[in-house]
Amino acid sequence: MNLHEYQGKEILKSYGVPIQEGVVVDSLDKAEEAAKKLSADTGTEWYVVKAQIHAGGRGKGTVEETGSKGVVLAKGLGEVKNTVDGILGKHLVTLQTNGVGKKVNKVLIAEDAYAPDFDACSEFYMSVLLNRGTGRNIIMYSTEGGMNIEEVAEKTPHLIFKEEIDPKVGLQGFQCRKIAFNLGLTGTAMKNMTKFVAKLYAAYVGADASMFEINPVLKTGDDRIIAVDSKVTLDDSALFRHPGFEDLRDTSEEDPTEVEAKAAGLNYVNLDGNVGCMVNGAGLAMSTMDIIKLSGGEPANFLDVGGTADAERVAKAFNIILKDPNVKGILVNIFGGIVRCDRVANGVVQAYKSIGNINVPIIVRLQGTNAVEAKEIIDNSGLNVYSAITLQDAADRVKELIVD
């Protein structure tokens, strides 16, 4: 689950990580009052207005309707309202959005953390995530923080450092000091960075996150270390341990079809292919996607219907898959262990009839309990539904009916 910047900063702050303070608003009328409150709390005289969307590159992005950037400095209270008006409610296009961009429903009015001595500030990059190859957490960091970090990774990868943490022992003090040293810090700044790293890692572990990315981490002119931005992804599988985190989900930022599937209890991920998949079990789903690719097609989605595949559930799955205009056919590949294959076959037939006009071929492979009976039901349905027995049969059907 992805979070907005202001939400990620709230988690960071709860673990003692120093952050760039700010106030989030969702209407123009609240902008000036929020800026006044921020000024009273922090003493800031300039403000940074930041679009809150689930996409990176906001500082380089452009608001379609006004030409504004997604991150803008307002030099004084008098500029705040106009600056917010140029972003809020508009569509921001970045390198991580499509051409339409994402609508900005909220903006963060933040303090100018670089004042009063901009030239004495330094920007760093830092992230914490799992290295799946080693099974260890890793801290990635660089002296070259800021908006051009992608170019740093591409052109000067030697400027990106990595520190792996053994989860059995956790982050050690010498590792925090090593990170601060590699960032070229000394004295008070080094001590503050060491504390910052330790607290950032504690937030990552404590929140059951998949990733914490801070870009930039700012060293101020007086050697404070502050998280100026935050990009946070939480592990959906661990949300049960954090009841309040589910309330942070912003469904307006997610794929509407995926939101609908989640509400229906279906595990669905939208992809870019032309063959829809309906499978029970994640492992079988991955195998089915491989079959589709080997047959010359491309999977249009990942959809796991789980252990129940009755007519209502199958109909919901069909409807969700068919929302994708790129789908040229559907492959149903279900193993009947918990649920009998003949029941699934009847569910497919009933779902097909209830939906009505389905103008793409459906290939059904059912193996397990009562598989023979299931094949007879499919073959005798009189519908645009084709049965398959083996994985090779399914692949051949995909090639014949969809790819060719």
TrEMBL record:
Keywords: ATP-binding, Ligase, Magnesium, Metal-binding, Nucleotide-binding, Tricarboxylic acid cycle. Mg(2+) binds at residues 215, 229. Binds 1 Mg(2+) ion per subunit. The keyword ATP-binding applies. ATP binds at residues 50, 57-59, 113, 123. Substrate binds at residues 280, 337-339. Gene3D superfamilies: ATP-grasp fold, A domain (3.30.1490.20), ATP-grasp fold, B domain (3.30.470.20), Succinyl-CoA synthetase domains (3.40.50.261). One of its GO terms (cellular component) is succinate-CoA ligase complex. Pfam families: ATP-grasp_2 (PF08442), Ligase_CoA (PF00549). Residues 9-59 form the ATP-grasp domain. One of its GO terms (molecular function) is ATP binding. InterPro entries: ATP-grasp, ATP-grasp_succ-CoA_synth-type, ATP_grasp_subdomain_1, Succ-CoA_synthase_bsu_CS, SUCC_ACL_C, Succ_CoA_ligase-like_bsu, Succinyl-CoA_synth-like. GO terms for biological process: succinyl-CoA metabolic process; tricarboxylic acid cycle. It catalyses: GTP + succinate + CoA = succinyl-CoA + GDP + phosphate; succinate + ATP + CoA = succinyl-CoA + ADP + phosphate. Pathway: Carbohydrate metabolism; tricarboxylic acid cycle; succinate from succinyl-CoA (ligase route): step 1/1. Its EC number is 6.2.1.5. It is an enzyme of class 6 (ligase). Coiled coil: none annotated. Heterotetramer of two alpha and two beta subunits. Belongs to the succinate/malate CoA ligase beta subunit family. This is Succinate--CoA ligase [ADP-forming] subunit beta. It comes from Parvicella tangerina.
